[in-house]
Amino acid sequence: MTTAIAVEHLVKRYGVHAAVNDVSFEVQRGEVVGFLGPNGAGKSTTLRILVGFLGPTSGSARIEGHDVQADPHAAKAALGYMPEAVPLYGEMRVAEYLRFRAELKGVGRAARTAAIGRALELARVVDVKDTLIDHLSKGYRQRVGLADALVSNPRVLVLDEPTAGMDPNQIRDVRDLIKSLGGEQTVLLSTHILPEVEASCGRVVVIDKGRLVAEGTPSELGALRRPPRLELVLRGAPARGIIAASPFELVSDHDEGDARRFVLGTPKKDEDAAIEALVSELVGAGVGVRSVERGKASLEEVFASLTHAHEPEPAAEPEGGEAA
Amino acid sequence: MRGFWPIFKRELFAFFVTPLAYVLILAFVFWQGLHFYLLVRSFAQATEASIDQGPVQAFFGGDVFYYLPLILICPAITMRLFAEERRAGTIETLLTTPVGTAGVVLAKFCAAMVAYIAMWAPTVLYIVVMRKAGDLDYRVVATSYLGVFGIGAQYIAIGTMMSAVARSQLVALILSTVLILGFFLLGLGEFVLDEGATRELCAYVSVWSQMGELSKGIVDLRRITLDATLVALPLYTTTRLVDAWRWG
Ligand SMILES: Nc1ncnc2c1ncn2[C@@H]1O[C@H](COP(=O)(O)OP(=O)(O)OP(=O)(O)O)[C@@H](O)[C@H]1O
Ligand SMILES: [Mg+2]
User: Fold this and answer.
1) Residues with CB under 5 A from ligand 2 (ion)
2) Taking CB atoms and an 8 Å limit, are A88 and B6 in contact across chains?
3) Which of A162, A174, A263, B124 is most enclosed, with most CB atoms within 10 A?
């Protein structure tokens, strides 16, 4: 068994409103998966069902093969969870809190001190270990929440917006940490920040309005919507004619100093060969080639198009050959 | 029962770390001291001590001085238990660890009981004083404290339940005070109602007459059974409430 997290046809309704509507996905052991969606998409609701805090209206979720409904103890024992709001007991000191949490999660007395030391170290909260939690800044609270999720060295980590409220340095630390956990541990983290996904996740699951809208690696998703672009900065009159005769489609062009920037849509086949041919032809005709850039559609664009424009075309599954 | 110990320890810590705990303890000690002083004074002035109303009887349940703090202090001890975890959101981290609902509820209840017992502890001093003043029946003292324990357990169980019903500590405090007071007044029906089934019922649940019996050294098994039921029922309801939150 290599599936760490399995979510099947999950539905959660509040009254008539479905916060989560038939969501299914799997996370394999050792994967770091981003759970992406705009505000109110149903990310937190899905994760809360996954960790056994909420019951689903229908559908099921399994952690390391244990059904969260039927066998909550085993499922929760395999889990480290960091909720979105990072609730903590303000009257406790950081190390005290982690000791309490380690005991709750069944870390044996002999292993506890080492486990706490490791969690403090990984989440970089060693310097505040004797500070009252009430006196911590938002970013530090966030890191204590992370230390809590890590303290039992769980096989599966579920993190709800782990970097919210952190400064850029802290965010980088946390992303590096998450990346380093992959392989050994399975990580599912929710976010609505794209660079986060690109920086630390091997795979992305996108939901919007309670529905799964796409799934794949960050680069697969990038390829999903927009055909790749080729941008050239050229100087010389023959450029336009050569481009028109090439298999590239001219998307736009504008002046850039004494040269001109051309944005081209690349052909579907033999893209590499076509680019080589085009450039050598341009050079041969005496056109000054200043820059050749192959652009990828940014994940931002993909995200925006997936989550806002998917109503007219409801079956926006990645397998559906959207790139066509 | 997994999770009982860590939660029990944390609850005790959380209670004794708040200023509220010391306000309650001080108020309680002051109240009991006043009660004791008034009793001693009235016994000193009495020319002829009645046989069945010794100072121990008077102190434990002889007048409203005994019941008032019970009705007010138990809800103040328990109001935090679940309401605060829900307000702060820590209930989410608590219930996503491998603990059982029964373990959580019992741990919180037991911690509140320990706090309650700690409040009564200083009254042992009065017993010592009374012993100096004359003969003391230790059986009566023991059964009196049994009453203190039993009635407290009921009120704490009710308070635990109400803390799981309400989302705010204040509402939990008000709800449990009202419920406990209502229950107490129901028992007083014994003294005002005419003969009949209702009066029988009131007498059965009356903590006043229960305390009266216990402070004379009488232990009635039916009352103990009732006590146990009135502790178990709210606690069971609490576990069901906590389980039901997942479907909210
Ligand atoms: N207890 C509740 N009662 C009613 N509706 C709820 C409840 N909890 C969540 N919802 C609704 O469910 C939807 C999904 O909420 P959820 O918190 O899962 O979104 P999210 O993707 O985590 O958003 P964010 O990025 O803002 O954290 C929202 O429309 C929200 O209003
Ligand atoms: Mg959320």
Assistant:
1) A 43-44, 84
2) no
3) A162
Interface probe, candidates B11, B80, B84, B93, chain A, greatest A C-beta count within 10 A: B93
CATH classification number, A227-295, choose in 3.30.70.260, 2.40.100.10, 3.40.50.300, 3.30.420.380: 3.30.70.260
In sequence order, the 6+-apart residues with CB closer than 8 A to the CB of B180 are B71, B74, B75, B155, B158, B159
Query: Which of A51, A63, A89, A112 to mutate against chain B (most B CBs within 10 Å)?
Result: A89
Q: Which residues of chain B have pLDDT under 70?
A: 44, 46-58, 61-65, 133-135
Q: What is the mean pLDDT of residues A91-109?
A: 95
In angstroms, the separation between the Cα of residue B50 and the nearest Cα of chain A is 52
A3-78+154-223 placed in CATH 3.40.50.300: yes
Q: Is the pLDDT of residue A310 over 80?
A: no
For residue A313, name the pLDDT band (cuts at 50, 70, 90).
Answer: very low
Q: Which residues pair with A5 in a beta bridge?
A: A27, A63
- Tell whether B95 lies on the interface with A, counting CB pairs under 8 A: yes
A309 vs A186: which has the higher pLDDT: A186
Taking an 8 Å cut-off on Cβ atoms, the answer to whether A73 and B100 are in contact is yes
Chain-chain contact of A105 with B100 (C-beta, under 8 angstroms) = no
pLDDT at A186: 95
Q: What is the location of CATH 3.40.50.300 in chain A?
A: 3-78+154-223
Residue ranges of alpha helices (H) inside B18-137 are 19-45, 55-59, 64-78, 80-88, 90-95, 101-120, 124-133
Opening angle at CA B226, ends B220 and B230, nearest 5: 145
Mean pLDDT score, A70-94 = 94
Between CA A153 and CA A307 the distance in angstroms is: 35
Over residues A277-285, mean pLDDT:
91
Which ipTM did the prediction report? 0.86
Question: What ranges do the domains of chain B cover?
Answer: 4-247
Compute the nearest-CA separation of B246 from chain A (Å).
4
Residue B1 burial by CB count (10 A; 0-12/13-18/19+): exposed, middle or buried?
Answer: exposed
Contacts of B27 (CB under 8 A, 6+ apart): B69, B73
pLDDT band (50, 70, 90) for residue A266: confident
Residue numbers in B near A103 (CB within 8 A): 5-6
CB neighbours of residue A112 within 10 Å: 16
Of A20, A36, A45, A161, best ligand 1 pocket probe by most atoms within 8 Å of the beta carbon: A45
Question: Where does chain A hold its CATH 3.30.70.260 domain(s)?
Answer: 227-295
What are the structure tokens assigned to B191, written together? 């003294």
Taking CB atoms and an 8 Å limit, are A104 and B7 in contact across chains?
yes
- pLDDT at position A271 is 79
Q: Does B90 touch chain A (CB under 8 A)?
A: yes
